[in-house]
Amino acid sequence: MRKMLLSSVVISAVAMALVPSVGHAGFTWSGATCVKNSGGDGYCEGNFNGFRTSSDPNAYYYFYETETGNQQFSAYLNGWFYCSVPSTSPIMSIWRDAMNNRGWFHIAWNASSQCTALTLYNSSAYSY
């Protein structure tokens, strides 16, 4: 009887070890938000998939750089949003990363439509 009980415990322990634990593989989050305040300043944030799956059928965003080095952001999400990067801005140093990023981003601008902040997140939960 004791051997049978011990065998049952061992078999149960092995079976429980083979059951996967709760994991978060495959978790994704997407979103898209753009806000322009009454003073003209504002921000956009989201990720590639969030803009692609937005309820606005015309939604898009892009970061681009011209051959002369001008860096600009443009988006449409229930309205048009735009900013350009001043030539002395530290944002310039990560602009090419933004152009290749499919993860989460946050960009802000002032009332003169100058980009004032850029944050990039590259995570398996945000990238597609």
TrEMBL record:
Residues 1-25 form the signal peptide. It comes from Archangium gephyra. This is Peptidase inhibitor family I36. Keywords: Signal. It comes from the Bacteria.
